[in-house]
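Prompt: For my understanding, could you write out one protein's sequence and backbone structure tokens?
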Amino acid sequence: MIIRYKEPKDSRITKKRSFLKEYTIIISVMLVCCVGAVLMFNEFMKRHTNPWVMVVDMSSYVFFMGLLVSLATRYIMYTGFMKPLANIGQAARKVAGGDFTVRIHPKRKDSKKDEMEVFIDDFNKMVEELATIETLKEDFIANVSHEIKTPLAIIQSYTTMLRKDGISNEEKENYIQTVLNAARRLSALVSNVLRLNKLDSQEIIQLSSFSLSEQIRLCILALDERFEEKDIELEIDMDEVMIHSDDSLLEIVWNNLLTNAIKFTESGGIVKVILRTENDTIVVSITDSGCGMDEDTCRRIFDRFYQGDTSHSVEGNGLGLSLVKRVIDLVEGQISVISEEGEGSTFTVSLNGYKKENV
């Protein structure tokens, strides 16, 4: 069986290359050739020119006209294809050398788009995406370097202090605890970077049917000690829902959202967890009574290493919500946040297109 794939028509192409213009150039050259040939032949007849002289003269004329036709064809090819491709090739070499500011200007003056104009647009868009990726890579490396150096500096500094004589047992215990906290932070950073890198390259998810409500309850139980440490009141209102998705990936979502809710909620505060089914959509919302966020922070909260509340930066590395966003993208869901400074935050996860049933 032979399967033939037909490329869909590109809707961006609003005008084909002008056939009339190219035809006019060729037909003009051909008319000049014909007129010249007739006039020469007529002159030969008047003069009763020797046939061999006619052959030589006509051959010379044909060679000359052939040159004109070749130049006309070359002009069409040069203006329509060779010059734009040469510009694209030159720009591509600059991009390969690390210059992502290169842009190719449109060739048409009528704002219409033919195949070459669309090709130029795609090239410019590709360069813009490469520039964005390069910027993200540089920022990522800079942030990772900074996040790694901080706990390492703490470990080095406090380890040096532990070697000094005359420190009390209480001070020694505090120094050891500080070193342990820095080591845990460093370990968490490396784990999250590796996990995020794995998720970035992952496209296939492992689907299975499981109880979403039971999974969230287990995540809450695993964090029970941390809820008790801050005396946080927990309100749970969940439907019993079965879902067909990747359980290991969704567990990352609930663990990070719940951990964030605990981190930003003051002692004696409230965290609410709600699970509802709305038509063909499963909606999970996690609300805290913490410090909240301003509008700019809400826009950037899912960026890697971004931490809106710097007072809590010692407790994390700004990768948790990036992991959450990547997982939600993988399972083809949506996540949103509503927050006001001093009023707490609500993260809402919507999972669409999954078969679910009441237990």
